[in-house]
Write a structure and sequence with these properties.
The protein is an all-alpha fold and 377 residues long. It has two domains: 222 residues, no CATH class; 147 residues, no CATH class. Helix content is 60%, strand content 0%. The chain is built from 20 helices and no strands. Helix 14 runs parallel beside helix 20. The radius of gyration is 24 Å and the shape is elongated.
């Protein structure tokens, strides 16, 4: 009893420390407190926060990777649409335990959309403090992206930022446990009713346990993903950048490429190119199509900012999550890498790099010619 009392006394400080380390979890604290649970709700909050902190790098990486998916511009940065969320759920098999048991009495597509929309239809108290004397605004300021102007279109209004994305995962973990328990209770007892333990689990799923299992099953491998590999295995690009023929081509075109880089850099910042400048450079070079799209160009742009991505994944306290995309600018070496990443989309790997290097270096030369010859002010 004495040990339990000591743990309960430490809970406010532990919850505050977890939110300081992972400010994007502030909505989870509010969400869990709005749900019925046995015992002290802060015990459950503390357990869930500990699990989320262990997978913070993975959660940030997944959110960044899929919020960029199929996006052709960054006018609405650090937000994830339903389409992107659904693609993430399919690829990570997030809803597979629910889908396997077929216990949902409605169309699957309808259920998935309603699950995502719970973020908007089941509100949490945005004014409630994380703990006594610790206002939620303290954490919101480090996570929320800039305000968006009003837009028309149903899909454009349903965008979640990082904190809301993690909130949707807690809602998913509740359903994963609930529907799995319902399936386990199908086998009736002699009296024709589910056994009491199964019925108890159905009515009161443990969010902390289901959240841990979900994170381990779906996000475990993402904890080890390097910044350079967030947008796919970069080994092919890394090997190309080390090829003598590639180094020679980049050196031959360096003077003209630097001129393009300065031309398309931000006014007042001649050494930094923003996404708009890079996309216009590739578009003017007439390289869009045949394997390269604006969305792939944007992935190449973001993927070349390895230092900034590493700071974001490691939860650098100096980096405000909502403004992360504003920090992504291409210095000249990153501009070279972004061009090579684009080329890798146009001419995907076929066989060993050593066998294809001579051909690819020729293609790189052709691509760099198009970029330098068609650059416009």
């Amino acid at each position: 009893m004495l040990r339990r009392n000591m743990i309960l006394a430490q809970l406010p400080a532990r919850i505050k420390a977890a939110c300081e380390a992972m400010p994007e979890a502030y909505r989870v604290v509010q969400r869990v407190r709005s749900m019925p649970c046995f015992g002290n709700v802060d015990v459950e909050v503390d357990r869930i926060l500990r699990h989320l902190c262990q997978f913070q790098r993975a959660l940030r990486g997944v959110f960044l990777r899929y919020s960029i998916l199929a996006v052709s511009n960054l006018s609405r940065p650090m937000r994830m649409s339903f389409f992107q969320w659904e693609e993430m759920a399919n690829n990570l098999m997030l809803l597979e335990p629910i889908k396997q048991h077929s216990t949902i009495h409605k169309k699957w597509d309808v259920y998935v959309e309603e699950l995502f929309l719970r973020q908007f239809t089941i509100p949490v108290d945005a004014e409630a403090p994380i703990i006594a004397g610790c206002p939620v605004e303290r954490y919101m300021a480090r996570v929320l992206p800039p305000d968006l102007p009003d837009v028309s279109g149903r899909d454009e209004k349903r965008l979640v930022h990082l904190a809301e994305f993690i909130d949707t995962l807690v809602l998913v973990s509740r359903d994963r446990r609930m529907y799995a328990d319902l399936a386990e209770s199908v086998a009736p007892t002699e009296g024709g009713a589910p056994s009491p333990p199964a019925r108890k689990l159905c009515q009161n799923p443990s969010l902390s346990q289901s959240t841990r299992l979900m994170l381990e099953a779906c996000f475990g491998t993402w904890n080890e993903v390097a910044a350079k590999d967030l947008f796919g295995d970069s080994t092919f690009v890394d090997n190309l950048m080390l090829e003598k023929s590639f180094i020679r081509e980049l050196e031959n075109w360096q003077a003209k490429l630097r001129k393009v880089h300065r031309l398309r850099s931000i006014k007042g910042q001649p050494g930094n190119m923003d996404p708009d400048g890079f996309l216009r450079t590739i578009n003017d070079a007439r390289l869009i199509g045949s394997g390269l799209s604006f969305a792939k160009c944007l992935e190449s742009f973001v993927g070349a900012n390895q230092k900034e991505i590493a700071q974001y994944l490691d939860a650098d306290p100096e980096l405000k999550v909502g403004d992360f995309m504003d920090e992504l600018l291409l210095e000249y070496p990153e501009f070279e890498e972004a061009c090579v990443r684009c080329m890798a989309h146009i001419f995907p790997k076929k066989g060993k790099v050593a066998m294809a290097s001579s051909v690819l270096s020729t293609k790189l030369s052709e691509m760099l010619f198009m970029i330098t010859a068609n650059a416009k002010k």
